[in-house]
Amino acid sequence: MTRYFTLVLLITLVYGCQPPTEQPAPNGKPAVTRLYSKAVADSFSIFINLPDDYEAKQAEKYPVVYLLDANLYFDIMAVTLNRYASVGLAPNVILVGIGYTDFPAMDSLRNRDDTYPVAIPEYEMSTSGGADKMLSFLHQELMPLIDQQYRTDTTKRTLMGHSLGGFFTAYTLLRSLSGEATGFSGYIAASPSLHYNHYYLLDQLKSLPVKDSSPAKQKVYITFGGNEDSTDSTSRPLNEVMTQLSAYISQKQSGNIIYKSDIYSHLDHMDTQLPTFIKGLQWMWAEQ
């Protein structure tokens, strides 16, 4: 296990610190493009990585993975997924990264796009609460464009994010459980910032009515690091949060939510993203 995380760290240092590539994707389409969102009233950098066999299998339709915070995570995940898929350790997927002009912009604007509702004053966020607009951008603007330009399996879309990106992923799941169409059938959240606004999302999940059926099954994978317990008196113990998540999510739509959670021992908040993304995607299609 130690060797595994050492390797992941090495890959992160080599690939994760490089600026986003602007080389063309295998089918000649640009790997990075700017896309204006009417919902958010701002432009995003959209990163595309196609499976190695995309051109060879012209009749194949591929699952799509939408990755938040792409300025930080896209390069390493693109390399890892292609290499892992080549030896059968990961599914062949189209990876779509949602990012910003650069890392400093991402560090600021993710507060705007990944949170809901507006942050309470103690967080001192200059902008926040725009997750509803961000979801509209993904579902109504970005997804139709990706489906138009690439051979996508529209029944297999997965959203994954870390920290505030994990919060947005959980928020999107909440909207889905509330009966709204989000376009996603899979959700992978690494160390989601559920403490935001005094556990707003947990309270919302708890209050959702139980449904007897759902149009399609959804798979949910949520993780935390074993060292994430906070000494803050307003924070809930990690085991309590995990128990509540399991109860609130699994009971909302009987038989239609496949939920899995893990605590990665000895990992902290900033260590969980890569193992969560890789293990989550492996689990997501393990029986499909």
Automatic annotation (TrEMBL):
This is Alpha/beta hydrolase. Keywords: Hydrolase. SUPFAM superfamilies: alpha/beta-Hydrolases (SSF53474). Belongs to the esterase D family. InterPro entries: AB_hydrolase_fold, Esterase-like, Siderophore_Hydrolase_D. The lineage of its organism: Bacteria, Pseudomonadati, Bacteroidota, Chitinophagia, Chitinophagales. PANTHER family: SIDEROPHORE TRIACETYLFUSARININE C ESTERASE, SIDEROPHORE-DEGRADING ESTERASE (EUROFUNG). One of its GO terms (molecular function) is hydrolase activity, acting on ester bonds. It holds the Pfam family Esterase.
